Structures are given as structure tokens and as C-alpha cells.
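Objective 1.3, modelling of assemblies. Example input:
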Amino acid sequence: MRTLSSDRKPALPLVAAMMLMAPVIGLCATTSPELRIPSPTKVIWSASGVRNGGGLTTIAICSNRGSVAGTIGARFFQYNGNSACLIGIGGVLPGETRTLEVGTVASMVDGTICSGGPAIDQGRVEIYANTAETLKFDCTILLVDKTNNPPLSMTRLKLYSGSGVPLNDIIFADGVDP
Amino acid sequence: MTAFKLNYPALALIFLLVGSSELSAQQPKPFGSGTSTVEAPQGLIAPLLRVTGARASSTLTTAIHCSNSDVVPVSITVSYFDNDNNYVCGITYDELSVGSTSTFSTVDTAAFDEDRVCPGPPPVLGQGRIEIGTFPLNARIICSAQVVSLIGSTPATLSSLDVFPAN
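Predicted structure (C-alpha cells):
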């Protein structure tokens, strides 16, 4: 168990706000070379409970259900709100599926992986996409066993919109449709 | 249900004068400040989210992860209830900073790094429910819940539970 508040060094709200408002490209020192998230972007999905440590890691699997090609990205955050990793994939065609991983997963293939596989215990994730109205992504975010194939552990994290609305409560006509 | 009739112009004026952070700081602490436990919060904090199927035993527990998606620090309390609706345990994280995440559980697990666990002997839930409340009330947080094995950094059991809005 982590010790209590003395072990926690919460980020200053101002710093967190600046990170959220800053341009996506070049923000994080641990980004993978393949990062190609154009600006402007928007957060389309979010989830809490991201883990990369022990035997578990976290992956996001996203399919383009829109009508134009687009970019999908994921920013993974530490427990204290600090950015741990930002990865993205451009040119995802309608119908294509891409996987974004904090660390390598033996049971999955073809994922884009955070450089260095940063430890996260536990944090959250924000899924980014272009702002094109006709670009839409469905995503599943999984907590999964890193090493075993088939995995001994695998479960889905609760999905929220980018503004924190639970998936089942999203009113798509209100403009939060991802 | 609302105990007081809100005067929104007056509230807006106060907000502008002192700023949201200052206003929050002046509110009485709803939870046990500086501790990992709280008195039974029933009746004090209206739940924002609910989870059913919570289990706590010699092999399993239920972990809750919550992140602050609001624009101000948020205090989060997680309350566990048994199958007979008896309050079993309440855990609070005071003023979780914006963007941060905290993990709650009835007991420590090998799979996660918990920030708050129930005090005293590990409680038993067979099975029950969880209420998640916030201060300020109705703050914007996102949470997930899992039933998880106590042992194994790659737990043999790991299953998500649905998180429902309380209202």
C-alpha cells in the first residue's frame, strides 16, 4: 500500500491546467517517435484506473467509425496528474482499428507503445482525436496481464466522455459525440 | 429535498469576490480532515455514483479508482455497505487535486497501489454495494470499479463492475 499524503505530491492545479491547455505535440518528454497528433484535437474519451506496474498494463483499442481518415491518440497520466506518456497514430481510415499501449502486452499485437513503458500506479487516460465533425472513434480501454498469453487478468475500464460524462449518459446530440 | 433556498446572484457575487478556490477553502470540511477514515457518512454526503456487486473476503476485494476531472480540488468518500445495507467502512481522500487519481479498497492488494483502505480488520462483504460521494457536491469525477484477487500482481481474478449515477 502506498503511504498517505506524504507520499503524494499532487501537481499544482495551475500546472495541470497548463498541461491540458498546451499544444499536444511536443508536450511530453516520453513521447514515442511515432507521435503524429495534429492540432487542434479534442478529448473524446477518458477513464480512471490506468495501471502499468506489477503484472498489469493498460491498452486502448479504438476503431474509426466515421467517414474520414483521422488521428487517434492517448495521453496516460500518473496518479498525481502528471503526464506519463503521449502516443498517437495518424491516417486511420474508416473501419480501421488501432491499439495504444502503455507497455507491451504478450496477448495483443500491432500496438503503438509508450516509449519506456512508464510505471503508472494508478492514473487515468485521455483519448484524443481530430476535431473533424465526421471523424468518430469507438474505444475500449482494458486493464490486462502483460506477460501471459492468454492473459490471466483482463477487464474493461469504465468509459467516460472527454468532459467526464458516463458513456451511458451521453446525449449524442449535445455535441459530445466522439 | 433541498434544505435551503439558494440565492444564486448572491452566490455568484461571493464567487467573484473570493474566487472558487478560496470559497472552497472556507467551506467546512465534510470529511475527516487529514485522516484516511470518516465517520459513517450516511445522511451527510449525497452519493454521486453507485456500484453493486462489491465483494470483500479472504480472497477478493473491490477496488475503486477515481480521477478528478473537475476544475477545483475534490474530496472523495467511498462507502462500503454489506448485503443487509449495513455501513461497513468509509474512506476519504481529502481535496484530490485536479487531474489526479486515487485508489480505494477494503484492504491492500498486490495488483494495485492503494491510497486508502478501510481501517482495522478487513471487512467482509458478501456481497454488497458502494456509494461514492464528493465535496463539493456533484463534482466532476470519473471512476472505475473492479473485483480483484488480494494476491498476485497479475491477479487471477479481475473483473470490472458497472458504475452507475446515483440519481
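Helices of chain B lie at 8-18, 20-26.
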